[in-house]
Design a protein that fits this description.
By secondary structure, the chain is α+β, with helices and mostly antiparallel strands. It has five helices and ten strands. It has two domains: 68 residues, no CATH class; 136 residues, Immunoglobulin-like (Sandwich), CATH 2.60.40. The chain starts with 5 loop residues before the first helix and ends with a helix. The structure holds copper (II) ion.
């Protein structure tokens, strides 16, 4: 195999970066980028808190690493055989032993308190306005909106041969999930065959989909845009090919989408809309059609 020259490799990367920036005009950085360092931008309060917790841990871990490195360097310099030919025979020092037990415990408690409160915060929304049910299959996702009376639909990866202009390879799907912004959404996740994991980095969600079990999480999306995620639990041959594509739209646009989805369905009860009653939406549609 011929290795690419660094020049062509650099040009390739540059055009890849340019291509991706061009594809998503003005949207949030919500997908992996070439040469990306760090986490994707936060789109939910959960991810914002995860980001600040990550930054706190980064400070703690950096200070500990510098401290330990300093100790090692000092010991190598001060107690080497040349400088310290007759080593001390001390084997116990109560004060030091108490200190090196108590200090790490304090550090761990300092980390545990925000960590646990964040775990509880991520776990569920107090008062969700609507529910999304995610089903994991080998190898695609199914989405269902019980409140909106939208029956389950499948969301599969767009194969390479069928990619359209603007699609992202391995990330774009046939039927994107549509969600409203500024809405507390309860998300129930389960698997219908083997373990999967529904993971959307900018939402701070990575929740296992387990057969025979409903796992819960939630999201409140704060910015309209397109968000991507992937299955994050090895689930077989097609594991790398079951991406998640979410279109976050305004609450009004979400209601319009719901009306499109339920059009022609024989509904047992009216779908729950966010900005207007079902009757109003039907009337609006009739007026629009008449015009
Ligand atoms: Cu998987």
């Amino acid at each position: 195999m011929k290795m690419p020259r660094w020049g062509t490799l650099g040009a390739g990367l540059a055009s890849a970066v340019a291509g991706i920036t061009a594809m998503v005009p003005g949207a949030l950085a919500d997908q992996p980028h070439p040469l990306q360092i760090g986490l994707q931008d936060a789109a939910t309060p959960v991810m914002e808190r995860l980001n600040s917790f990550h930054n706190l841990l980064l400070v703690v871990i950096t200070l500990i690493t510098i401290f330990v490195l300093g100790l090692l360097v000092y010991v190598m310099w001060r107690f080497n055989a040349k400088r310290n030919p007759t080593p001390s025979r001390t084997s116990h020092n109560t004060l030091i032993e108490v200190v090196w037990t108590v200090v790490p415990v304090i550090i761990l408690l300092f980390i545990a308190v925000p960590s646990f409160s964040l775990l509880y915060y991520m776990n569920r929304s107090e008062d969700p306005e609507m529910t999304l049910i995610v089903h994991g299959y080998q190898w695609y996702w199914g989405y269902e909106f019980p409140d909106q009376q939208i029956p389950e639909f499948e969301s599969r990866m767009v194969p390479d041969a069928e990619l359209q202009e603007g699609d992202l390879r391995l990330l774009s799907v046939t039927e994107p999930l549509v969600l409203p912004v500024d809405t507390d959404i309860q998300i129930l996740i389960r698997a219908e065959d083997v373990l999967h994991s529904w993971a959307v980095p900018s939402f701070g969600i990575k929740t296992d989909a387990v057969p025979m079990r409903m796992n819960e999480t939630w999201a409140r999306i704060e910015q309209e845009g397109v968000y991507y995620g992937m299955c994050s639990e090895l689930c077989g041959e097609g594991h790398g090919f079951m991406p998640i594509e979410i279109h976050a739209v305004s609450r009004e646009a979400f209601d319009d989408w719901v009306m499109e989805q339920v059009a022609g369905l024989d509904l047992e009860e009216p779908p729950h809309l966010l900005t207007r009653s079902y009757e109003d939406a039907v009337n609006q549609n009739q007026v629009a059609e008449a015009e």
